[in-house]
Amino acid sequence: MSARASVGGAAYELGEYEAGYREAPRFAEKIARYEMLDEAGVWGWGRFFVSGRDRAELAVAAARRTLAMTGCTGGDVDAVVLGAAEFPADVDSHARYCRTVLEALKLGNAFVLGVTLGRCTTLLSAVHLAERLVASGTYDNVLVVVADRVEDEEKRFQQFAIFSDSAASCLVTSRPGDLAIVATASALDPAALDAAGRFSGQLGRAAAEAITRRSGVRPEEIAAVLPPNLFTPIVRMSEGQAGFRPGQLFLANIANRGHCFSADPIVNLVDRQRADGLRPGDHLLLTSGVPGARVSILVQVR
């Protein structure tokens, strides 16, 4: 299947302070409340990253790497999609955030879009939107940037993940890039859209089946699945129900990076490449889900 757009310059930025999982606020109290055994190897507990910078600084740091890697200047970018699991509440803060990012990256000609509401699917939703904008011929180079940080340290350690302050970015372009976008898919159960809900293997399987219909690539033919960095049992269960084998899952960053909000698929893509390399022709699945929703993007290494 021919590519509709390409992805290049995948990059990320983590908080500058590294901490061990036992340093998460009220760690012992929380695992007792959640009835979790104190066994790091079972859950994938490891490091997390905290930043003293605001989200705009994190976003700019990641995006600058993307522009440098792709050889683009701010003037080459004709649209930018800014994403966050949670934007500041007031519109004045929205304006300041946009102005800071756009001015720092010299994006004077870019059409600006914001993507949120998807929680941990936000980044892939933004890439999906950018791919459609490029495939339609509306824009040639769309910069996607997401950034999030924990504002209340009481929420750093949760029942499903330990969060890291982070940002990630990539360029979705009509030009040949590192990765050809082969197919995108999403699955939704509005009744299950609840922060306290359960992850659904059915949604994962529905998205995987849609990827196969649109690309002809079967789940077993995918070289690596790059999922969110939730606790290991959750990822193994949800991805297994979606039809993927344990050996396909990139899980190292659950302990190495923590849960980087919606940035996980790009963080994992970059680190998977560093660890094992990417072979031309390989198919990779970037995927993320929350209770009630799943987004997946299939790419092929050029």
Automatic annotation (TrEMBL):
Domain of life: Bacteria
Occurrences of domain Beta-ketoacyl-[acyl-carrier-protein] synthase III N-terminal (ranges): 119-175
InterPro entries with a match to the protein in the record: ACP_syn_III_N, Thiolase-like
Any one Pfam family match given in the protein's UniProt record, by short name: ACP_syn_III
Name this protein carries in UniProt: Beta-ketoacyl-[acyl-carrier-protein] synthase III N-terminal domain-containing protein
